[in-house]
Amino acid sequence: MVRNKGKTRVVKNEGRRDGKKPPRSHVSYVDIEQVKQRYGVRSTREPRKELHVFGEEEPQNVKKKEHRGVYLLLLGLVLAGIAIGFYFALIIDRIEVVGNEKLERGEVLTISGLNIGEHMLFANLGEARSRLLSSPYIRSAYIKRAYPDKLIITIEERKPVAAIVGVGSYALIDLEGSVMEIAQTNDNGLVAVYGVSSGGYAVGQKIGDYAEFNSETLLEIIAVLSNQGMLDIIESIDMSQPLKIGMTTTYGYTVNIGQPENLTGKLENLPPVLSKVLSMGLEGGTIDLGVLGDPVYSPPEVYQPETEGQEGGDDGEGGEIAPDKAEDGEANQPEPSPVP
Q1: How far apart are CA 17 and CA 161, in angstroms?
Q2: Concatenated DSSP letters for 277-294?
Q3: Which helix (H) or strand (E) holds 165?
Q4: Under 8 Å CB-to-CB from 233, ≥6 apart: which residues?
Q5: Where in the chain is the domain with CATH 3.10.20.310?
Q6: CA distance to 94, 145, 174, per residue, from 157 (Å)
Q7: Which of 13, 183, 245, 320 is the most buried (most CB within 10 A)?
């Protein structure tokens, strides 16, 4: 190999006329420098020192391929480790519940069907939200992923505002008329509603879905009272006579609404009238919001039993009222009077 230093190895395959491959290759060596000087060839690039037989690999290329395979194996292991770590990093470890006041955290999780240990990407949040909204105690629900391992459930609970009185039961409803519960008692002191049957209602349904006249009127009254912050002072609502709706307050006053027309305008007059009557120290009586013009306050009727001396007297104090006195308004019967 020393004597051929600086020469290029040239492989020449001698062909045969019959087209068959020769049994062996003939190898000869050529001095590249002599070829350059003879033919005047100039090259800025250093030529390869040796040309080898086709199919024969150099040791360096073999080593490079071996190193490349090792690198690819290491890269695959690294990527697999990252994927495994990423998968376990997204396992749900915490579920936070926000907005629950009466429902316990465990109750909310049971309704949603979500559990710790599930995978963040595989948890069906849409189905869990639908299950939450199917509860008669939940008005709205939202579920958010907080990566890497936390879920946040935000709910808004329904609040009962009235109890429809039935036969031995009460249908508790919220502002939207959704039946939250069929209870045996009204222990929470909710507004008792008479004249609207609770027998046909089921938990989770809305009384407004029945398109019943009394139901729609009741929901409108409750909405107006809630906006004015007066639900707490209303004791009962009587819907038994659709054209003569009445209410009672916790202060002992009877409120006559009359026909279900212009309910918003009528009920907006109640707070100032009630405040004026209370400031005057008047106890009991009726506040009529259904009359034309300003509301009218009537004091409670006082029953006075008749005595023997009141019969047939000449002083006009008998049981019959003189026509002239009746015309002059001197009768002892209480007269409605506009609120001062």
Answers
A1: 109
A2: HHHTT--S-EEE-SSSSS
A3: strand 162-165
A4: 249, 250, 251, 274
A5: 94-157
A6: 22, 21, 10
A7: 245
Give ∠ CA 115-118-119 in degrees, rounded to 5: 145
Average pLDDT over residues 134-140: 95
CA distance 331 to 340: 22
Q: How close are the terminal C-alpha atoms of the chain, in Å? A: 131
Q: Nearest 5°: phi and psi at 171? A: -95, 110
User: How does pLDDT run across 239-267, given as a tens digit for each residue?
Assistant: 988 889 999 999 999 999 998 889 999 99
CATH architecture of the domain covering 162-298: 3-Layer(aba) Sandwich (3.40)
By DSSP bridging, strand 26-31 and strand 7-12 are antiparallel
Enter the pTM of the model. Answer: 0.64
Q: For domain 94-157, give the CATH number.
A: 3.10.20.310
Q: What tens digit of pLDDT does each residue of 169-216 get? A: 899 999 999 999 999 999 888 999 998 865 567 898 888 665 567 888
CA angle 156, 159, 161 (to 5 degrees): 155
